[in-house]
Design brief:
single chain; 559 residues; alpha/beta; eight-stranded parallel sheet; 13% strand
Length: 559
């Protein structure tokens, strides 16, 4: 098939994404142009100059499609339109044109594992008979028990409860997330072709890339009889088998789907690319990032690794090695729309894991007591470490302001289905999705004049962009300086540890490596200061003291 150039967002550099900085926008919480309390596409467009000034290369939009918001927009009712509460396709085109003017690329979220229950296909399935072609686009099965009153299997929903819901005629349909998110049957060629159409639809509008939601979940073992999971109910990546044999997650067959996507991507010049959200073992992540597949995969090991030098070094080495195996580049991320913001995670005592963080949220952030100043200091050091690593860095909206998690949202204000599906045992992800503060004063701190779909806390304006702009030492100015320097410093994709193969420095809390052109990076992830080597300081995450690198501080130098 001939390649189809597109003037909007085009570039001669097909590999622009390999070491890009990509800024994630959660549209409903970014900027509200029409003052209805919900962020929108025009709001995004109005703030693109701010993002260009920040120094990012691309903008990734979380779902903006028509949705009943059963899962914050990840229940998509129409994959080829804009939610009317967020704007129109004309608004989207205007946003892409403005991004192109500012030399920013646009990426969009694609949600292929499941649709909304309001999607026209699922509504057709509900009104069709068992065994019909309409039902074959999804996963419908008869139940167990004398009257089919039991779910077909013991498969659990990731949001709690059963992954099966019964319909009026007695059959059950599969949803690995909320009941409002029925899973597609990716064994069905019609499903595959329809998503190829969707990828072309957005690529034709100038979209440069895609973030693939639940990329590891599309291929399922649907051979009869369906297998119960039994003792293998855990969906944690390290609990999954390393041979692709789990009936639901990370099956080898998923890569045939993405080879089809790659053929679509390569119809364009430059080729489109994608990054997989694949919660899998690190040893199996590379397959998603292959040149025959999506191109990149998120490295969540980095996000989940304690801020300890030895652990960080091991994670960095593993990620770079796996990326090298497939010719991809690694990805680095510290926060996103699904996790507690890293400024708050690092404020908790010790090396708080996921369960510790969730328990902290359930106390509205009161127990254990957090140290926000230390958390921000660690967050700044971790950010400068991340931005110095070879590969792509993904930045979540508001982290450049040092925003903390809003841990004390009232139960009545929570929107995340995890809260309801877990019967109030897990608070969910709303605390990282609270709308941004743009101004230190004014209605809703500049988000919009018509309220805010999640309440913003008192004092939110102290983090505002205009409160930090031009202020030496502010988090915003650190990000701007780092991204400006990074653009000049990045050359090859090589990292060399300054201490060779000796990990003794990491054992003492110090990470020290060099990049091409004499760029030297030192991250002191310990409680004690260390001596700085000779060289010119380019930027540091915090003040330096008499030739020493203070605790929890990262510095960039030139030898």
């Amino acid at each position: 098939m001939p390649q189809r150039p597109h003037p909007v967002g085009s570039t001669a550099d097909a590999d622009w994404w390999r070491q890009a900085v990509i800024y994630q926008i959660y549209p409903r919480s970014f900027a509200d142009a029409d003052s209805d309390g919900i962020g929108d596409i025009k709001g995004v467009t109005s703030r693109l100059p701010y993002l260009a000034g920040l120094g990012v290369d691309a903008v990734w939009l979380s779902p903006f499609y028509p949705s009943e918001l059963a899962d914050g927009g990840y229940d998509v009712a129409d994959y080829r339109d804009v939610d009317p509460r967020l704007g129109t396709l004309d608004d989207f085109d205007a946003m892409v044109a403005e991004a192109d003017r500012l030399d920013l690329k646009i990426m969009v979220d694609i949600v292929p594992n499941h649709s909304s229950d309001q999607h026209v296909w699922f509504q057709e399935a509900l009104s069709s008979a068992p065994g019909s072609p309409a039902r074959a686009r999804y996963v419908f099965r008869e139940g167990r028990g004398e009257h089919g009153e039991l779910p077909p299997t013991d498969w659990p929903s990731s949001f709690g409860g059963s992954a099966w819901t019964r319909v009026a005629d007695g059959q059950w349909y599969l949803h690995l997330y909320a009941p409002e998110q029925p899973d597609f049957n990716w064994d069905n060629p019609e499903v595959r072709e329809d998503f190829h159409t969707t990828l072309r639809f957005w690529s034709d509008r100038g979209v440069a890339g895609f973030r693939v939601d639940v990329a590891h979940g599309l291929a399922k073992d649907l051979t009869e009889p369906l297998r119960n999971l039994g003792d293998a109910l855990s969906y944690q990546p390290d609990a999954l088998p390393d041979d692709g044999s789990h009936p639901l997650w990370d099956r080898d067959a998923v890569h045939d789907i993405y080879r089809g996507w790659r053929r679509v991507f390569d119809e364009y010049q430059p080729p489109r690319f994608a990054v997989a959200e694949a919660w899998v073992r690190s040893s199996r992540r590379a397959a998603y990032a292959s040149a025959e597949g999506l191109g990149q995969a998120f490295n969540f090991d980095f996000l989940n690794t304690p801020l300890e030098a030895g652990a960080m070094r091991a994670t960095i080495d593993t990620a770079i090695a796996h990326a090298r195996d497939t010719g991809a580049t690694s990805t680095w991320v510290l926060s996103n729309h699904d996790v507690v913001r890293h400024a708050s995670r690092y404020a908790l005592p010790g090396t708080a894991g996921k369960s510790d963080v969730e328990a902290w949220l359930m106390t509205d952030g009161r127990n254990p007591s957090a140290d926000p100043d230390l958390g921000l200091r660690k967050a700044r050091a971790a950010t400068m470490l991340m931005l110095a690593l070879p590969g792509s860095a993904y930045v979540y909206q508001g982290e450049e302001l040092g925003l903390p998690e809003v841990a004390d949202l009232r139960a009545a204000d929570l929107r995340d289905p995890i809260w309801v599906r877990s019967a109030g045992r897990v608070k969910g992800r709303d605390g990282c999705r609270v709308p941004l503060p743009w101004t230190r004063e004014g209605a809703n701190w500049g988000f919009g004049s018509g309220g805010s779909w999640l309440p913003q806390p008192a004092g939110w304006g102290s983090f505002a962009a205009d409160a930090q702009a031009g202020v030496e030492g502010s988090v915003l100015e650190m990000y701007r300086a780092a991204l400006r320097l990074r653009r000049d410093l990045v050359s090859d994709e090589v990292l060399e540890w300054a201490d060779g193969t000796d990990a003794g420095a990491a054992a003492r809390g110090l990470l020290h490596f060099t990049r091409g052109g004499g760029w030297r990076v030192l991250a002191n992830l310990s409680e004690e200061p260390v001596a700085l080597p000779p060289g010119t300081v380019l930027l540091s995450s915090g003040p330096l003291s008499q030739g020493r690198l203070p605790a929890w501080t990262t510095v960039w130098m030139r030898a």
